[in-house]
Design a protein that fits this description.
The two termini are about 35 Å apart. The protein has helices at about 15-35, 70-75, 145-150, 150-170, 180-195; strands spanning about 80-85, 115-120. It is built from 5 helices and 2 strands, in the order H-H-E-E-H-H-H. By secondary structure, the protein is mostly helical.
Length: about 200
């Protein structure tokens, strides 16, 4: 967590390679600084390894039947097909250098609070492909909503819902988009209650 890069295209292999090289160079420099200025606790510190690849918070997402937005987080939206409740704040890491002012005429981004909200099942169902479900940070939402729902505990719940939806769709010989979402939510709630006991 010692380095961050801005303006890197997460869909470009060359850009990612350059960022990984620069990141490893900066981590080695961090270790040197820790050894030199960290006192006795750091004087013998050494680097064992770095991550296998640079972490990318956001690239492409498939548009779903519903697009979760910052407004949903701000008002604490509830849905009939709400598969889980989220209370996480929105941890936004800007694409551009946050230490620079936004370009003239552009706002820095919406200001909002996060009230407990639900993720609707429709965010998991692709808008244009009936039998495609998305989970984790790939569900349908804007970058501000992503800053909340991308946390590990939250993405586990989307995976659980998609897995159950796929099983139910197979049992019923229907597409996931044709599922009775209320029945899905009821079954999810029953499974979670049983697990909690």
């Amino acid at each position: 967590m010692a380095t961050q890069f801005y303006g890197v295209d997460g869909t470009d292999a060359g850009a990612l390679s350059r960022a990984e090289i620069q990141g490893r160079r900066e981590i080695r420099k961090c270790v040197e600084v820790f050894r030199e200025h960290g006192g006795d606790d750091w004087k013998d510190a050494f680097l064992i390894a770095t991550g296998p690849a640079i972490g990318v918070r956001e690239t492409r997402r498939i548009r779903g039947r519903y697009d979760l937005t910052w407004e949903d987080l701000d008002r604490g939206s509830r849905f009939e097909d709400g598969i889980t409740e989220i209370a996480s704040g929105s941890n936004i890491h800007p694409v551009d250098d946050p230490y620079e002012a936004p370009p003239a005429g552009l706002p820095a981004g919406p200001r909002f609070r996060v009230r407990p909200y639900q993720i609707p099942f429709r965010c998991l169902v692709a808008a244009d492909v009936d039998n495609l479900l998305m989970v984790g940070r790939c569900i349908s939402g804007d970058c501000y909503a992503l800053g909340s729902y991308r946390l590990t505990g939250n993405v586990v719940r989307t995976g659980e819902a998609a897995g159950l939806a796929a099983a139910m769709a197979t049992e019923q010989s229907v597409q996931p988009s044709e599922l009775d979402s209320k029945a899905l939510v009821e079954r999810l709630n029953a499974m979670r209650a049983q697990t909690a006991e």
